[in-house]
Specification:
By secondary structure, the chain is an alpha+beta fold. It is built from three helices and five strands; from the N terminus they run H-H-E-E-H-E-E-E. 21% of the residues lie in helices and 21% in strands. It binds zinc ion (3 copies).
Amino acid sequence: MTNAGCPHLEAVSNVKLPARRECEECVKLGDRWVHLRTCQTCGATLCCDSSPNRHASKHARQSHHPVIASAEPGERWLYCYPDEAFAEY
Ligand SMILES: [Zn+2]
Ligand SMILES: [Zn+2]
Ligand SMILES: [Zn+2]
């Protein structure tokens, strides 16, 4: 694990992967998303900032769950919202 001096990223030892390839909030709304992210605190899979609802960002702000991982196949990176830090794994 590389890191950018972010304690939240350093705390992730086992990266949580998406249980389902869909944004759980968009599914409830019947809405669409662009990319998926998985919360590394609670495992929720939510949509990215390019998606109309930006559920992953909203979740991070409201729940104070700092770190997400890309849930896109072939992408292996983490992002911390409060520190705006990226790490590949
Ligand atoms: Zn952080
Ligand atoms: Zn969504
Ligand atoms: Zn969460």
